[in-house]
Amino acid sequence: MSSRRSSFRRREKPAFERFKDHCRHFTAFMFSNVGIILLVTFYIIGGAFIFQSIEIFEYERLKSEKPHRFIARNFSGECLSRIWELTAENISFFDHHAYRRRVNDVLLDYQRAIVKKQLKGPDVEQWSFSGAFLYSLTVITTIGYGNITPHSEWGKLVTILYAIIGMPLFLLYLSNIGDVLAKSFKWIYSKVCLCRICPGVAKRRIIRERRKMRQLARAMHDMENARGSSSYTSTSSTTSSNSSSSEYTRSSRQSSSLVDIPYTESDSDIEREIRGSTDEITVPVTVCVFVMVGYILWGALLFGRWEDWNYLDGSYFCLISLSSIGFGDLVPGDRVITADRDKVEVSFILCAIYLLLGMAVIAMCFNLMQEQVVHNIRAIKRGFKACFRCRSS
Prior knowledge:
The protein contains 14 helices and no strands. The protein is mainly alpha-helical.
């Protein structure tokens, strides 16, 4: 008994080896399908907290060092006051052209002041958690709306590092989740659209395909018989006739073997063919296009309710966002971004989920369309090879 206990203790791995095994299992889980979703989610949330802290800290520091830069100016009131002064000065001797020229100068100064204020950077209220979350999401997805940008040096530096790590991570997310969605969609398509879940419909389809194959084999058999008989009657010498007759009998046996294959419609064979691999199924391109268009139209309805957009603006925003173009003329959550810093609305979280899931759906559709195109090209290639083989024979 003591020897068994000592051998069991000797087989136990050291602490460092056990730590390496745990790290290996943790890494494998994090790069699995569930792990990659959690990793992307926590990466975006962590980036939101980091960017919010950096920009608010920089704002507070500049406000304490240079408070005169953050005094709110009433540009509209100043512009109206100057126009009123010009009107009061020229009321006694009114020169229409001179008055109009000086008012235009005042309006140009007002426009320059507004543009300068906007280029100076957004207010700190835009760096709420929702705004920082949107910024982190647009960085790793390469959408880049441009409505929220960092203005501190540390914010720009962290953005560079955050994008270097986050963009490959998001591409890995699209690859894994797109592949999972493609396999799931092919399974649903095979069960619903191809009626593999309906045994009667699938059985009739298999029987029709077998009948077509048998008719094709009969046609090939008849062609071989006609060609063999013509070559047999045209021979003159006995040696050549013997060789041609042997070739004829060999070819007739081969073609007859196609026709003489036992044609059974047993349930076991049909069920075995019905339970074919899902990887052999290809989804048509029209179905993939219908899925993408339907997802965009569904998003247009959602954003039309959340953001008070019309149907065209919602569809335009969904297409621009899911294709990662991101012009920035329409941005989700304008009223959410300027809200309380600690307030997070459910509609904004659903918007982020829509974008993350939508880009995975687009990757799934492109994957299925690629499989369909490759399948069609291979079928055309096989058809050309069969034609050349028939001509050569």
